[in-house]
Hints:
- It contains four helices and 15 strands.
- The chain is an alpha+beta fold.
- The protein has one domain: Alpha-Beta Complex (Creatine Amidinohydrolase), CATH 3.90.230.10.
- The strands form five sheets. Strands 1, 2, 4 and 5 form a four-stranded antiparallel beta sheet that branches. A three-stranded antiparallel beta sheet has the order 3-12-11, with no helix packed on it.
- Helix 3 packs antiparallel against helix 4.
- The relative contact order is 0.18.
- The site of one cobalt (II) ion has 5 residues, from loops.
Amino acid sequence: MKRETVTAGKISPGRAVPPGVARPEYAHTGVPAPYRLSCIKVNADQIERMRMAGRLAREVLNLVLAAVRPGVRTDELDRIAHQHIIELGAYPSPLNYMGFPKSICTSVNEVVVHGIPDNRRLKEGDIINCDVTVYAHGMHGDCSETVFVGEVDTEAKKLVQVTWECLLRAIDVVRPGNKFNAIGQAVEAHARQKGFSIVREFTGHGIGEHFHMAPYVAHFYEPENTTQMVEGMTFTIEPMINVGTAECRIWPDKWTAVTADLRRSAQFEHTLLVTADGVEILTGGREPWFLRK
Ligand code: MF3
Ligand code: CO
Ligand code: CO
């Protein structure tokens, strides 16, 4: 049976954040600080605050993923996330980031990234990526997972499994002295071997006091990217892997990115800290949700 494509739904107004909550610099204007160098050496205090932000992002993501089932609207997932984030005294980083209208991103089936929560109801057989970023203790923590809505077909299962493995293999090469191009190399080798393609338009990013900072983190092999990882760097890895073409199109809403062939796409994301001898996953949890439910 042919899958129906995802179409733009109705978007409810952005949710309110209580006045007492500390906001990132773009919350009122929509304009983030210029993309700047990641603090190569975050100090112990910043690391501790990143740990707290990462832990909260994970807590909220877990709550959202637990609510995924057929019939639930993506706007309901946004409501659940927003409510919990403000109860934690934190700010939902996507809200008004370059004008983004909602508090999380929900990307269903052929939506690659930056799907806007709306009144569409999840259907049995869908896959959905939920991407949660919170601003807490002056730092951003960013993570996402793709999960199944009820029973999904074999192709979807394989795509999600391989995308998860791509993230794990990429995290495995994070340690001081390794080059950033080792990340893309690891993702590309695995995705290609399984017959999937890698999105090039969107990358991982430095993260900390700002949502998106240098360095950018490519998920495909870029031989010339020989920048070395240094202890104390914090950045995300967030590969987007497609069943068919790597090409993307952007909807008229200027956010929603879909695959050009409308075949499915999956993504997983963690925020990472380079430690003296390897990596610490700041948004870690138990096993991913698609293996649990
Ligand atoms: N969380 C996304 C990322 O992984 C960014 C979302 S930006 C938004 O980088 F404006 F769309 F929310
Ligand atoms: Co990110
Ligand atoms: Co994210």
